[in-house]
Give the backbone structure.
Amino acid sequence: MGNGLFKPVGREGIRECHGHVPPMAPAGGSAGAFDIHALENIAGNNPELMQRLIEQICSSNRDDANQIESLLAQGNRKGLMCLAHRIKGSARLIGALPVQEGCSLLEQGCEGGMEAHELRRVVQALLQALDTLQIQLKSIMESLASLPAAEGHCGK
């Protein structure tokens, strides 16, 4: 998995720096595409770390969406199923329920021999869930960027 976001990391390592992230709701109200508190727990209320995590998630989401489209075009159901499983695990870490549900449907469709046109619909729904997640994550990132820099950031 390389140096991906979701490798196990000890809480103490993450919490080396202390900052404060103001409470924020995801864009679009309380029924968001993910659980902001899950990200806050991972980042230890460190705005700089939170921003880096969000940037990494957004980058992974873009790559995953491109790969989903490519695998669908190739008719590679096994590849789609494996990718959906990986995305679902990552989505679980941040409480991205719509993405998790879309991945579950895609896994079931690939494994159960779903008709190609139905599979395309499932993929489109998953891509929409990923897009909504991107929008909400970017909104949070913009909010974080407007915060004054906290003193004592790690590595600085």
Notes: Residues 1-30, 150-156 have pLDDT under 50 and may be disordered. The CA atoms of residues 15 and 44 lie 5 Å apart. Helices lie at 11-14, 36-43, 47-74, 77-93, 97-111, 116-145.
